[in-house]
Design a protein that fits this description.
Family: Belongs to the bacterial solute-binding protein 3 family.
Strand content: 15-25%
CATH superfamily of the largest domain: Periplasmic binding protein-like II
InterPro entries: Bact_solute-bind_prot3, Solute-binding_3/MltF_N
Protein name: Glutamate transport system substrate-binding protein
Pfam families: SBP_bac_3
Structural class: alpha/beta
Distance between the termini: 27 Å
Keywords: Signal, Transport
Largest sheet: 5 strands, mixed
């Protein structure tokens, strides 16, 4: 089985590479009129240790991020400007600013099945992609953070009745992203559900609209953005899990993990994190920015 997974991962790496998007443009003022990246901190020269991953990135002049180009509010390419926008995308630019002094980023479009391989073989430096920290994943990658907390919820086609809680999925065909926390959550809460998986969020949403499953279990942030764009879809539950997102790093790179955690603490303290949230997720979710999760607070981080 491990061999098969490895083969699939390598094959998908080629597809992922096709999704690379240069995103080196310096962003202007944010949606709230504040130049969040311009005001974001840069590391002192003494923080870039000789021979470290940070020094390699600084010398290259570009941070390579495993991420998405099709996740509204989180990391989506604007077809008009070519800029990749959203919470995860801007977090990547802020980290690049901290290391390099400029927000120079290349995003390698990644699938949930390929993230571990992309980090392990050095194709990407970091992953910002709703990457839930789990103890199982932490055996393959290092996680800085958590940097955001979300949770799973359920979407159905508009007008669908009879699904108001996870247990209602028993006996039904349910859509989930491959290699996502939705799969064990469905198995736990609705063990009689039949799970069908697809490789990306757009594929899952399309499958739901094509009646290839009666419900789609996914992170609330992603589903809010999808339901806002497409009135054929509706969300029918509150989040029923707590999913801490981590910044994926190469396994065993303790220097880089400490460096990224130190950066995360700084942008949480100076308000950069909160401004990034307001400019992305906060354009849909009402209220002030939430309290960011405590760094190192979950197993695997």
């Amino acid at each position: 089985m491990k061999k098969m997974i490895a083969v699939v991962a390598v094959a998908l790496l080629g597809l992922a590479a096709c999704g690379e998007a240069d995103n080196a443009a310096v962003p202007g003022p944010s949606k709230t009129g504040k130049d969040v990246i311009g005001q974001a901190p840069a590391a002192a020269a003494s923080d870039i240790l000789p021979g470290s991953t940070m020094e390699k990135i600084k010398s290259r002049g570009e941070l390579i991020v495993g991420g998405s180009l099709d996740a509204p509010l989180l990391s989506q390419q604007n077809p008009a400007t070519g800029e990749v926008e959203g919470f995860d995308a801007t977090m990547g630019k802020a980290l690049a600013k901290y290391i390099i002094g400029e927000p120079k980023v290349k995003i390698v479009n990644s699938a949930s099945e390929t993230r571990e391989a992309l980090l392990a073989n050095g194709t990407v430096d970091v992953v910002f992609q709703t990457y839930t920290i789990t103890e199982e994943r932490a055996k393959q990658v290092a996680f800085a953070g958590p940097y955001y907390t979300s949770g799973l919820t359920i979407a159905v086609k508009q007008g669908t009745s009879g699904i108001t809680k996870p247990e209602d999925l028993n006996g039904k065909k349910v859509i989930a992203g491959a290699n996502t926390p939705a799969i064990p959550a469905i198995k736990k809460l609705a063990p009689q559900a039949e799970i069908v998986t697809f490789g990306s969020d757009p594929e899952c949403l399309q499958a739901l609209k094509q009646d290839r499953g009666v419900a789609y279990v996914q992170d609330e942030t992603l589903l809010i953005a999808a339901a806002q764009k497409d009135t054929a879809i509706q969300i029918v539950t509150k989040p029923f899990t707590v999913d801490p997102y981590g910044i994926g790093l190469k396994h065993g790179d303790d220097q880089m993990k400490k460096f990224v955690n130190d950066w995360l603490g700084k942008i949480q303290a100076d308000g950069t994190w909160q401004q990034i949230w307001k400019d992305s997720i906060g354009t849909v979710v009402q209220g002030d920015a939430p309290q960011p999760p405590k760094i190192g607070s979950v197993p695997g981080s």
